[in-house]
Amino acid sequence: MTVVEKRYQVFLSSTYADLTEERAAVIQAILDIGHLPAGMEMFPAANEDQMTLIKQVIDESDYYVVVVAGRYGSVDAQGVSYTEQEYDYAVESGIPILGFVHGDPDKIEQGKTDQNDKARKRLAEFRKKVEQRMVKHFTSSAELGGHVTTSLMRAIRTSPRVGWVRGDKAMTVEIEREILDLRQQLAKAEDERESAQQALIEDSSGLAQGNDSVTIPLIVKGWDPEKSARRSVNLTATTTWDALFGDVGPIMVDEALDQDVRQRVASHLGGADISRDDRLKVKGWQDLKLSVYNDDWDMIQVQFRALGLIDKGQKKRTVTDTRKWLSLTEKATGTSPSCALSGVKTLRRRTTKKIDNIGRWRSRDRFRQRVRYSLVGYPIGVNRHCHLGARMA
Fold first, then answer.
1. Which of 59, 117, 240, 351 has its CA at 20 to 30 Å from residue 217's CA atom?
2. Torsional sign, CA 359, 362, 367, 371
3. Which of 190, 191, 178 is nearest to 1 (CA)?
4. What is the rounded CA–CA span in Å between residue 381 and residue 307?
5. How do residues 70-88 score in pLDDT, each as one tens digit?
6. Angle in degrees, CA 124, 63, 51, rounded to 5
7. Contact 326/318 with Cβ under 8 angstroms?
8. pTM for the whole thing?
């Protein structure tokens, strides 16, 4: 789904005549980061009284910015300034408030400060009220603009609001309902899929288990010194489903790439039961690469999925990661409450010799041994006596 860019409306509250430069800096800072300033400069002529209109605009705003400097401002009949009334209403409304107070009021030029004692007292009380919250102090319009930019970006990150979007990109009620219906359908389909999968694997009596054998073609490519060329041959490897899953299962405990699991299958077959005649085919070969056919790899996956042992990876990844991931299921790890096994069977360490000096898989170490682990006694396998590469009807 496309993420629609939001623009936030920011209400600016302050006295006016003494802070024209500061208000301009704040408005520019809001515009520079792509959002919408709202203040008395933008109010249209209206029949409503001033505070009614101000409250309506504050209600429609996402953030509230208050700037306090050297004047208390115009007051109503009760002697409370409109700036303080705006501030009190913002607090009451619960809108995020960003406060900015002049850091050195004694240095404010005389024409921009209150001249009577009553106004100065009310300003000091209002300043103290604002400073009960976290505020930033400033001494110039440029410094104020910088503070507004950083504070607003932080507020948007930590306290995201409803915001505004273009009308042609806004989600209608009908679209919201459609998305909700689709989510419900998806959840229902997922439940049905899990139920069907569970029913499929509950009875595995018809499937090969543990030590039942399976024969899989193995593709071997390497450098043949006698022919002075790279060659490719097919060998026939026989293993058990217990041994195969025991070898590939552990790398999927924390999820693994499909291609890595497939390569582990090929490596396992390299250490499986291969006839002497087949081993002679690769006698003396160097730089060997082992692989399996696509059909055989698909069949192996189908088998493990049918038994409920593997599934696709569930971890969240970036949208650009299109690779296929595989993971073990709860049944495979023994964490499912309905699992007959109490847990993963004891890992049995087993050492299998690679093909000996008649035909070496790894030229670097002709006597190298390969250690692998198998899950003992795990009920896995395709239909009994089915050989991959020789399909059964």
1. 351
2. negative
3. 178
4. 8
5. 999 888 888 899 999 999 9
6. 65
7. no
8. 0.45
Residues 261, 298, 344, 353: what is their CA dihedral angle, to the nearest 10 degrees?
A: -60
Highest averaged pLDDT of the listed ranges 187-196, 315-324, 345-354 = 315-324
Do the Cβ atoms of 262 and 244 come closer than 8 Å? no
DSSP label at residue 45: P
Question: Which string of b and e fits 27-66 if b means at least 16 CB within 10 Å?
Answer: bebbeeeebbbbbbeeeeeeeeeeeeebbebbeebbbbbb
CA neighbor of 81 nearest in space, from 118, 32, 37, 26: 118
Q: Which CATH superfamily includes the segment(s) 9-158?
A: Toll/interleukin-1 receptor homology (TIR) domain (3.40.50.10140)
Say which DSSP state 98 is in: E
CA–CA distance, 303 with 307 (Å, rounded to integer)? 6
